Amino acid sequence: MGISTSKTQGITMKDELSIISIDDNISDRVERMENEIENKGDLINDEISNKIEKIGQLVEKIGKIDLKERLKEEFADIKSYFHILAREKLTLEPYSLEKFGELVSFDGLKGYVEKERYWVNQPFAFIAILYNEQEKEHLYHTVEPELSIFERMVLETLYETILDTLTLYDTSDKKKSEILENKILELIDGYSIEIEMSSIHKIMYYIKRDYIGYERIDPIMKDPNIEDISCDGSNIPIFVYHRKYQNIKSNVSFESDKLDSFVMKLAQNCEKQISIGDPLINSTLPDGSRLNASLGREVTFRGSTFTIRKFKEHAFTPIDLIKNGTYTSDILAYMWLAVENNKSIIFAGATASGKTSALNAISLFIPSMAKIISIEDTHELVLHHLNWIGSVTRESFSKNTSAREIDMYELLRQALRQRPEYIIVGEIRGKEAMTLFQAMNTGHTTYSTMHADSINTVISRLEGDPINVPRVMIQALDILCIQMLIQVEGKMEGKRVRRLDSMIEFTGIDPQTQDLRFNEIYNLDMKSDTFRKSGKSYVLESIMARLSWNEEKLKSELENRRLLLEYMVKKEMDEFEIVALIQSYYVDSQNTMKILEKNI
After folding, report:
1. Concatenated DSSP letters of 11-47
2. Is it the case that residue 555 has pLDDT exceeding 90?
3. Are 332 and 465 in contact (CB under 8 A)?
4. What is the pTM of this model?
């Protein structure tokens, strides 16, 4: 009967026995767990008792007041933590001196007297020019923000993570500085740390300086007073050429591995490669500065080196030549008339004598609609003419590639097929000089520079290898300007300045001796630092004959140009205003002079 009842309920005897067995197992496990909990509870109680005992001993030792202070500190930490969790998204506040104070400070160096200081990247970097009376030397001292230990830790952490977090999406259509700012703020916000806004400005300065700037030499690159930057090897102070103080040692240097890395970075900025197998590079940086560098100790035994000849942000103008005393307004009035009337000119001189600067300044006299083609090894010339084709040479990409090298000779050959009115060649030093003089002899107006410090040296270089220009072709050159870097006496005693040493007109070949005939029209008196005019000008006579001018007309035109140049200096015009005034004179000289007379 029982069996039949069990079947009716769907449970067999075997099932009942299994259930009883499970119940017994559960009871055993529950009993074991209770025992374990009881044992652990005893252990926990013992641990708590020990903690309480230790706290009691600690209270007796440090006293109730110290314990109270510790509790306050703990409470402040917890409060700060909850504040971080609840705060809004981190944003960069614009720098304000009143709010954040000064980010950089400098109290001088022992043994040095500070001559002057000036900002190059306010409020983050300035330059202090120091002088050591005992050593009789200047020091170019760059001053940047000092970082606390905490700020340096944050900076190093950001250095390690920021590159990994940048994506292609981040770099799509934004400026590099904006991308870095956003990413830095995002990372700092993710660290959940309390940090002052002034510290964020400092950290952001260093990351921008190192990633999109020129690292340690960034303040020097931003200094408009610097012409050249020279690194002679690892752990050697970098030297700079300052417009006011000439060659000065700086407080900046590179360790060996840092220097190698920086030179490779400079090469990459030029879109070039440098390696131990090919350790030399000569190229142009993105801002137009000229770079020459070597990697490692393969060819320079003191380590990697680099020399940067800084590109002048604004084109050199006739005003700069007058202000610096390189030329006078009378000489430039003569040059203006010569350029306007298609006279070919070469500027010669030693290194850093201002040849290219003078060439760039004189080129502003070229009429605005004239077709100009310039040819350079590295881009330096800045013209303000719309009808201007600027070209630069190109090295072969690789010795194993079919992409051939394009040199100045090839560019000059191509230029002659484009019917230019003015051809400007950055520097002649090889077979391109022959083509340039052929262009002169076929009626093209050409301007160029070359390394030579006297008329005899110029002729020797032109006639000798590898230039080899026949003497009969040299006579096509109209004017030769020889420039020098000299030390003058008087008020600027001991200061090195750029000066026109002599200006020479070529007047042909002597039929008897076959020697070149030339006429020195201006020369420099070094003692008085003034220019002397000697003899008549054959160039001006040829202009008079071609335009059917008389002496009075010639003097009037020269005087007008001299007055315009002095007016430019007086008004301190920039390059754009100078070009506008020159072109205005070409269009309507009488009206331009009337306006000038009213404004004087």
Report:
1. --HHHHHHHHHHHHHHHHHHHHHHHHHHHHHHHHHHH
2. yes
3. no
4. 0.75
